[in-house]
Structure formats: C-alpha cells, structure tokens
C-alpha cells in the first residue's frame, strides 16, 4: 500500500479554483493549472488499500483505484497511467466531469473525508499526456469485419476505441459538425476544455478509427441501408429527448431547452460565432432544474453577463450530510452540492413549481410565476398563498431527458423494440432485437453518468466482438441490467 498512516497524517485537499471574478471573465477551466501535482502524492497516500475496496464497486468501470493511488504516491506516473487505462478509456473526461461515486464508496469516508480519487485520477492522466505516455494502440492485424458506431459521446467513443483495438474497421457517425456528443456541445468549456477531446480523437484516428461528422442516421442515411454496409452497428445515440414544461406561456420567445442554449456558447469557443445567437447578457435568467445541466446553465449565464441568475428546483433542498438510514455508506448520496458555477453567484430556490410564464406585447418572456410545493400523501402539492412571480427574460429548461430521439426515424427504420421506459431494449450482450445491432449508453440505460456511459461502451464492444468472431477477450465491466448501488 501507499503510506499505512497516510490517512492519519494528511487531511483531504482538493484542486484549487481560480478567483471567481477572474474566471467569470473567461471560459478556461476553473481550476488553478498545476495546483494538484504538488499535493497529489500526499492525497494518494490517504488510500488505505482496504481488504475490500468498495471504491471498485462504487465505480461501474471497476477502476483499480488502490493500485494507481499507490503508484501516484510513489510518483511512478507511467505505471499509474497503465493501471488507469486498464479500465477507463478516457480518464481525463471522468476526472473532470464525473461526480465520483467511487469517493462516496471510499471506506475512509465512513468517518472521515474520503480520498480525493477524482483529483488523483486527473493528475495521473494529465501527467501521462505531458510525458508522452499516452500513445496510439494500433492493432497488430485486422479482422476484416466492419462496424458502424452511431454517436460520438463517451459511450460511442469507448465502444469505437475498443473495437478498433480489437482489429475491426470502425466508422463513427456523428450528426453534429464535430466529434464528442454532449462532451463537445453539452459540457461548458469551463468544466472541460475541448482540447482534451481533440487530443483523444487524434489518438483514435491514429489507431484507425474513422469519423463521419454532419451525418444523421435516419435522415441523411436510412438505417436499413447503413446496416447493409456494415457487419455490425452500435447505437450510442444518447437519451436526447428533453423533458418539457407544458405550462401556459411555454411558447414565448426566450424559453429554451438547456441543450438549445448550451451548445451555442460552446460554438462561440469553437470560433463559429463571435457572440451566441442566444445570450444571457443583461438579462434576468431563470434555470429550471437543479442538476448538473442546470448548474452548467448557471455558469454559462454568469460568463455571458446576466443581470441575475435564479435556479429553481421542485424537490426540497438536499441534506448537507448522509442520512444513515436513507443514504448509508457506500451508496451514492443525494447531498447539497455547491458547484463552481454556484460559487460564482445567483440564487437557488427549492420546493417550487412553475405555474406559467408571462410575456410582453412582442411575445418575449418577462416573468415566471411559481408556487411553493410540499409533499402531501407522498405527492408534491402546491401550498396555497405562496404564489409569486420573478423576473425572467431568459429561461432554460434543465429537467432531464426522457428517452432516445424518435423523430429522426432511426428507431423505426431499424425496427427496434423499446422497453417500458422508452429506452432501446437489449439482451445480455447489449444486442437489440435486430441481429447485429447493439446499443450502448443512455440510449439503452436512460440518462446516467459519464462513467456508466464509458462502461456501457466497453461492455457493448465485447458483445459486438463476440458476435463478429465467436469469442472475445475484451473486458465487460457491467451487464445491461446493472444499476448503481442503492438502498
């Protein structure tokens, strides 16, 4: 193990963030560059090398956390990155974006602040890129089999990289103009600079993966025609149907889905626009939805110069600490979280529901009317006499997603069966009811975390490899039916 007394000698330290007023003026990542490396060896030493490391179970990828903690403590960065990549194709993504269920499952976390697993992870991979230890893994021979991967989010990229390294010829189809899916156009630059995606894509190109952007299967190419071209198809199209808010005034100008608003800000950083077509500048902004996507809208509005930002959540404010019965260790608890975006300002309002929007004579939203709600007989019910209105000149809906896209025709053209939740049904090998067509990520699981998406991509790749060759040595960290550890 690292240091037998590390967790006794050192407290938890996390990455330092740049001053709020400084970072709100740019779109760079919020963390102080290089601030982790001087402290990360001590932080890695806090890992106790448990007899039963529950962090393995907390992470669906099965990351070998005690092993790379030990290497990081000893500053053996080459060995650390090898152990890291053994289970995770893209640790620079998860180290920045994952909410770290591994830390919630850390044994040290029973009665102390857990190990900073996420910070150690990102330190290892950033160091590996710096030293040139991340190299293309080109297959020794090709199988002669071809695979189409539809979607270039984390699930699609993971499946594509695994299958390319297995020797298959893989083409990734992406309907957007750039590769990355929600990593590219859903995650703001201040959470993850897109150079990290670009660097991985270049590695994948060098390994042999091909990319076709600006092509939407179902519209630009009929799904049945695509299937005829390839020996297997992987659907990694996500769960992109956003939950709407059917209240009076929803049609007013200025009310947008979060995924209509966020990509435009990212396109400015890509150089496509000088200013975004939809901007929060000088406006009173209301974000409906208290999750990570809502926080992304909050941080984006701050950087665009919003006059005010208010985030609404229908559920009560989460607790600051675990509840020993409802959310015991090692489950992933729903706790009150202050993200970097929340540090930058704005108001958070809990236990409220939007009743309607009010606009001006030109059809622009101006006010949002809401009421407080409470649980009555297990149902959220409006509290009489609590109605009020707040200024709202830009509203973003960040209330989650309800299933995969049905409008482009892909599901119908393939003839795919859906489960009771509207996700694409699959068997134990991640194969749909159509032979040779597999599904990975949110399209089959429903809206989930980035670590689950990568785990799905890796597991689906094994199913595809077995389908094409009759056997597979590729790892499969999860089954389609696996779910996060819960009470």
Describe this structure in words.
The chain folds into three domains: 5-131, Alpha-helical ferredoxin (Fumarate Reductase Iron-sulfur Protein, Chain B, domain 2); 146-240 and 402-469, FAD/NAD(P)-binding domain (3-Layer(bba) Sandwich); 244-399, FAD/NAD(P)-binding domain (3-Layer(bba) Sandwich), CATH 3.50.50. Helix 15 links the parallel strand 7 and strand 8. The protein has helices at 6-9, 20-23, 37-45, 55-58, 65-73, 77-85, 91-97, 101-104, 117-131, 154-165, 182-185, 195-207, 223-229, 258-269, 292-303, 340-343, 410-414, 442-445, 450-469; strands at 146-150, 169-174, 210-213, 232-235, 241-242, 255-257, 284-288, 308-313, 347-350, 352-359, 365-376, 379-382, 388-391, 394-397, 401-403, 437-439. It is globular and about 65 Å long. The protein is of the alpha/beta class and 487 residues long. 32% of the residues lie in helices and 16% in strands. The chain contains 19 helices and 16 strands. The mean pLDDT is 96. Pfam families: Fer4_20, Pyr_redox_2. Residues 38-69 form the 4Fe-4S ferredoxin-type domain. It catalyses: 2 L-glutamate + NADP(+) = L-glutamine + 2-oxoglutarate + NADPH + H(+). InterPro entries: 4Fe4S_Fe-S-bd, DPD_II, FAD/NAD-bd_sf, FAD/NAD-binding_dom, Glut_synth_ssu1, Glutamate_Synthase, Helical_ferredxn. Keywords: 4Fe-4S, Amino-acid biosynthesis, Glutamate biosynthesis, Iron, Iron-sulfur, Metal-binding, NADP, Oxidoreductase.
């Amino acid at each position: 193990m690292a240091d037998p007394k590390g967790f006794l000698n050192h407290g938890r330290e996390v990455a330092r963030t740049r001053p709020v007023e400084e970072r709100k003026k740019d779109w760079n990542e919020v963390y102080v560059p290089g601030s982790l490396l001087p402290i990360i060896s001590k932080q890695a030493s806090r890992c106790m090398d448990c007899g039963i490391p529950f962090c393995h179970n907390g992470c669906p990828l099965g990351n070998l956390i005690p092993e790379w903690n030990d290497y990081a403590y000893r500053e053996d960065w080459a060995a650390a990155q090898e152990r890291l990549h053994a289970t995770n194709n893209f640790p620079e993504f998860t180290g920045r974006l994952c909410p770290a269920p591994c830390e919630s499952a850390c044994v040290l976390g029973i009665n102390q602040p857990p190990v900073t697993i996420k910070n150690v992870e990102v330190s290892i991979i950033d160091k590996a890129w710096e030293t040139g230890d991340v190299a293309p893994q080109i297959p020794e021979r090709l199988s002669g089999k071809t695979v189409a991967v539809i979607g270039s989010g984390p699930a699609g990229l993971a499946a594509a990289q695994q299958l390319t390294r297995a020797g298959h010829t893989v083409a990734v189809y992406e309907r957007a103009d750039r590769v990355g899916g929600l990593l590219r156009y859903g995650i703001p630059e201040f959470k993850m600079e897109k150079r990290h995606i670009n660097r991985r894509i270049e590695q994948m190109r060098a390994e042999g993966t091909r990319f076709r952007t600006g092509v939407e299967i179902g519209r630009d190419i009929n799904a049945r025609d695509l299937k005829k071209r390839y020996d297997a198809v992987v659907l990694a199209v996500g769960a992109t149907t956003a939950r709407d808010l059917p209240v009076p005034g929803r049609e007013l100008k200025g009310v947008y889905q979060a995924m209509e608003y966020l990509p435009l800000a990212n396109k400015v950083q890509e150089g496509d626009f000088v200013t975004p077509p939809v901007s929060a500048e000088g406006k009173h902004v209301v974000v409906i939805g208290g999750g990570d996507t809502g926080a992304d809208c909050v941080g984006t509005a701050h950087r665009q110069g919003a006059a005010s930002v208010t985030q609404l959540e229908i559920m009560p404010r989460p607790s600051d600490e675990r509840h020993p019965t409802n959310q015991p260790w090692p489950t992933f608890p729903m706790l009150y979280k202050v993200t970097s975006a929340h540090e930058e300002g704005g108001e958070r309002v809990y236990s409220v529901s939007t009743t309607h929007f009010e606009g001006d004579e030109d059809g622009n939203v101006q006010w949002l009317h809401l009421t407080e709600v409470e649980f009555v007989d297990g149902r959220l019910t409006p509290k009489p006499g609590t109605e009020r209105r707040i200024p709202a000149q830009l509203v973003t809906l960040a209330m989650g997603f309800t299933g995969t896209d049905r409008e482009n025709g892909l599901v119908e053209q393939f003839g795919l069966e859906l489960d009771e939740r509207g996700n694409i049904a699959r068997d134990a090998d991640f194969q749909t009811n159509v032979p040779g067509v597999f599904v990975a990520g949110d399209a089959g699981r429903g809206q989930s975390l980035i670590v689950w998406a990568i785990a799905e991509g890796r597991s689906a790749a094994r199913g595809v490899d077995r389908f094409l060759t009759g056997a597979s040595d590729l790892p499969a960290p999860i089954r389609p039916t696996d779910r996060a550890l819960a009470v």
